[in-house]
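Sample pair:
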Amino acid sequence: MENRMRRNNLRLLKVPEELEKGDPKGLVVCLIKQGTQIEEEEEVLLKDIQRVHRDPFRKTTNRDKPRKILVYFHTYAIKERILSMALKNKIVSAEGIDFEIRSDLSTTTLNRQWERGKRIDILKRLGATAQLKFPAALKVMANNKMYIFREIEK
């Protein structure tokens, strides 16, 4: 349910707070334009941004790590289009900084993905091929057999 509410949102990570200068929306538009090499005719997509703000809470006391920027779009399709442009490169560069653009997912979903990611790394070290399948299944190929796990046990 929570992910459904967040489906039109993006998160920008590792963007220094001093770049903002009181205009977070202007900063985000500039970063997305430069970072995704968006075409001039596609700049209309950026008008779909509803609002932008920093994550109000700091989960860590490490002040060197900037807070995430939350970007709310009017439509899911526009958000997905911008995300797909950004995912061509894992790290996006603009304004002399490297940052990441990701979907805004709930903490529960992020933790589940992280747990599965740890298991995928272990399986790869053992010589198996593993990947995440939508929505949250783990597909493993080992010894010429395919296994699909819907739940991960500790």
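The chain is about 30% helix and 25% strand.
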